[in-house]
Amino acid sequence: MKNLIWLSAYLIISAIFSSCSKDDENTSIIPEGEKTNVNVSLNIAPINAMGTNINDNRTSIENFWLLEFDQQGKNVAVIKELRFSINSAETVELVAGANMKLVVIANVDKSIVFQLGKQNYEALKNTIYTLPVNSSNAIPLVGEQVVSITKENQTLDAITLERIAAEVKFTINNTSSDFQLTSIALKNIYKMYYFSKGTISQSNIADYSEIPCTIGEENYTHYIAENLMGTNSSITTDKDKVTDKLATFIEIVGERMSEGNKEIATFKMFIGKNEKDFNVTRNNAYNYNINLNLADASDKRITIEKIPLEGIAAEANCYILNPNSEHELLVPVKRVNAFWGTEEGGFKTDHMLNDGNNQGKVTKWIARIITKDSSKELLKFTTQQGSSANDYIGIKPTGNEGNVLIGIYDATAGEPAQDAKPLWSWHIWITDYNPGGDINGIIPAISQNPGKADVTGGAIYRFGGVDNNQTKDGSTQAMMDRNLGALSATPTDGAKTIGMYYQCGRKDPIMTDWSQITKLGTSSLGGDVYSIHIKTAKGPVSKETAVKNPDTYFLGDADHFTYKDWLIEGSGSTELWYKKSDEKTKTLYDPCPAGWRVPYKMNTYGEINGEDVDNGIYLCPNNSSIKIFYPFGGHLNAITGQYPGGSLFEYKTAQNGWLGSYPDNPNNAYSYHIFSATLVDEYDGPFFPIMPNNADGRYLGYSVRCVKE
Question: What CA–CA distance (Å, rounded) separates 465 from 449?
Fold first, then answer.
């Protein structure tokens, strides 16, 4: 990557080098002030390369201009657009006189040269001009000679042209693998390009700029102005090369998580020919192969800032993130060990993160996106790797709403394969809906029953039929106004209101891009059947397999239809979303955000009326004015038969949702079914649009609506 920094540069003219002429003794003396032909030749000074030899011929020459000034500094000639061949003499008509100053400029726009030629020599030295570049590789050059022109056809010593800029080229080999590079830049670049060689001075910071570089490039090449900041003879090693002067430097910044803190490491490598030198000198090439170790405490060029992380999200399997948030969401990764370091995961230390007790064998991890429900970019990682169970995944939204499943992978032996299995995963629900909870704020209390409280992007509801109106802390109950993962609770928003599907007891949602839904046919029981193109595999499976395949919907065994679970027999406790001994405590596998959990029971507590609307139904508990919308998202089937397992049934005709508790059969779980009010009216006797506490096989794919923990 090559960037030329000429467009905003400036020129200040001053004296360069001088040399004497070769007098031709056979030529008559020319009176001062008269014009005469003179033989002028040019050469280009070789590049002074630091570390690598560079081909001097790579600088193309687009034109030459020769300006002549007399002893008093008055401009007496402007010879434009000369066609020199390097190291060959060219006959030029100049004005005779003693101590004439010849200035040759190449690769400079003619409008600049014309302005220079209108001024005297002293004024020219103190004038600043912008310096445009005519082509991508045409580096401006300048040379000067003071000579007495006295004879016809006098041959002058060659005028040496120097490039008025320096080349900085570098590569980066990041050996500190636990640091993720976040920025690379070339800084303290002097804005002004001088025709003459500069002097060592401390200038104003306003005279400097910087060039940001793209992370991941194979190499970086830039052309910059001379910036002379002197030397320091007391410095003896590269690692000690630091200064508070405005010397030009390469800055590389990386971040890592370390024991609950974010560490930001900044590496500054100052440009110069050796460890003592802080000068960027014209016509020099500075080449560096940087072997970067941001963890090297002995390197004075590295500064590390430790930032205690405040407002970190509580442990959960789902996090709500506003699509327009400017803040970083920090997801703790301790749940990896909460599963693999216990009986639940089989005490597998090779799957555990390093926790400071030398138990976890995973000493480096990396986060990835597993799947999402939109083709748009939904989030970016701000911290994507770490080395400890005390670290965090950092993410920021991109402005788009949707659902993302992210996972953490073992990177101890290097970059995980593309088909590697995650150690744990999290659902990121990117929505402007904020019902409160943990870092999202307080969940509002609702005094009335039934009742409603408005929250950002929607509402929350209370009615006594959910969990007997009980919460863990004894406060009043509340329920979200939408299914987990839904992006709207407005009936006319269609598929955006449906949310995610879950197999009961699993922490991860089954995501689908609703733009890909296709109709398969009609069920023998009536109603259309759809495919939503999800990933499926044959079940039942173990908890370990389910954790490692969070985006897979596990099908039931058609040969053993009575066994209605995705979890294989003998896989330990079946109390995944609910514990009889502690009904109000949220479990390790609960899919709801912090402050919320799956409800374990639903009773009607009076009449619940229904009002059919587009794509669903409003439920009105106890004949109140409260209206709670439920979309008719149907459910995912779990047995292959007439249609493939994972097909969508009852879409647009019913809503099926999970409750966390279970009857005596551990393979089943309680659920609720919601039907069209029109359908209810066709039946005689007391019948409501909602049928709570049905026992269904846990292999089915139902919705979840979270309640206050």
Answer: 10
Selecting from 3.40.50, 3.90.1530, 1.10.10, 2.60.40, what CATH number does the domain 7-163 have? 2.60.40
CA pair distance 610, 618, nearest whole angstrom: 6
Every domain of the chain and the residues it spans:
7-163, 166-308, 318-430, 457-708
DSSP 239: G
Rounded Cα–Cα distance for residues 524 and 536 (Å): 23
Q: What tokens were used for 199?
A: 């002097």
- Sequence-distant (6+) residues with CB within 8 A of 149 are 21, 30, 36, 38, 94, 95, 96, 97, 100
CA distance linking residue 128 with residue 646, whole number of Å? 73
User: Which residue carries 């002030």 as its tokens?
Assistant: 33
Question: How would residue 328 be classed by pLDDT, with cut points 50, 70 and 90?
Answer: confident
**Cα–Cα dist 518/514, whole Å:** 9
The answer regarding whether domain 166-308 maps to CATH 2.30.30 reads no
pLDDT single digits (tens) 257-307: 665 567 889 999 999 999 999 999 988 999 999 999 988 989 999 999 877
CA 257 to chain centre: 16
Q: What is the DSSP string of 183-224?
A: EEEEEEEES---SS--------GGGEEEEEE-TT-S-EEEEE
Measure the CA–CA gap between 305 and 71, rounded to whole angstroms: 59
How far apart are the C-alpha atoms of 650 and 670, rounded to whole Å? 19
Cβ density class 159-172: b for 16+ within 10 Å, e for less: bbbbbbbbbbbbeb
Helix/strand/coil for 576: coil
Domain 166-308 shares a fold with domain 318-430: yes
User: Which single residue is written with the structure tokens 């109950």?
Assistant: 477
Coil vs helix vs strand at 514: helix
CA distance 295 to 281: 31
3 pLDDT higher than 70: no
**CA distance linking residue 191 with residue 197, whole number of Å:** 15
User: What is the maximum span of the chain, computed from C-alpha positions, in angstroms?
Assistant: 131
CA–CA gap between residue 659 and residue 345 (Å, rounded)? 24
DSSP letter at 440?
G
Whether CATH 2.60.120 fits 318-430: no
pLDDT band at 438 (very low <50, low <70, confident <90, very high): confident
Helix (H) or strand (E) holding 338, with range, is: helix 335-340
Residue 560 backbone dihedrals phi, psi, to 5 degrees: -135, 65
Residue 270: count of CB within 10 angstroms of its CB: 22
Residue 685 CB contacts under 8 Å (≥ 6 apart), including other chains: none
What predicted TM-score, i.e. pTM, was given to this entire model? 0.64
* pLDDT recorded at residue 440: 82
More confident residue, 88 or 147: 147
Q: Binning pLDDT at 50, 70 and 90, where does residue 488 land?
A: very high
pLDDT at 446 over 50: yes
> What proportion of the chain, given as a percentage, has pLDDT over 90?
40
What sign does the CA torsion over 631, 523, 566, 422 have? Answer: negative
Residue 319 pLDDT grade (very low, low, confident, very high; cuts 50, 70, 90): very high
Distance CA 291, CA 276 (A): 20
How far is it, in rounded angstroms, from Cα 646 to Cα 700? 9
